[in-house]
Write a structure and sequence with these properties.
This protein has about 180 residues and is α/β, with parallel strands linked by helices. The chain has one domain: Rossmann fold. The chain is built from four helices and eight strands. The strands form two sheets. The chain has a six-stranded parallel beta sheet. Strands 7-8 form a two-stranded antiparallel sheet. Helix 2 links the parallel strand 2 and strand 3. The protein is globular.
Amino acid sequence: MTRTDSPSLALDAEALYAELQRGVKALLAQQPDTQLVGITSGGAWLAARLQRDLQRPGEAGVISSAMHRDDFAQRGLSVSAQTRLPFDVNHAHVLLLDDVLYTGRTLRAVLNELFDYGRPASVKLAVLVDRGGRELPISADFAAARVALPDTQSLELAQGDDGQLRFVVEHQADRKK
């Protein structure tokens, strides 16, 4: 696990993906029939890639927080943000995957969405980066890195046309309101 507190944040997303893959393998060893579900969009990229790289049958699920967000009126619904769960959620073991864990509000919304589809046996969370700043009592079962960023910065995962992952750090002045 990597800890970064530097104002000139430089995270290697591909190296962190390798660490995430190791952590997910360990979580899956405890419960092999666990279903991978990525939170749109960064988490969905991670879940699909892990499903392929770990040679798991079928496809990973995708879940959106859009319909249950407390800021839905401001954000609206993205066309790409549609939930698709290719398994019966009832009694399933679910591993949610996300790129960055921050306040916990997205996870709260995702859990509400997941329970709209049924009652899972268990839900765990694995993330590339935990940046702290929690507003809700939510924590990851596995985080490839923990970083400290000022509230004026956001950290997002980007995926190139070649599938390579990288992080984008935005400053408050650069962010759209």
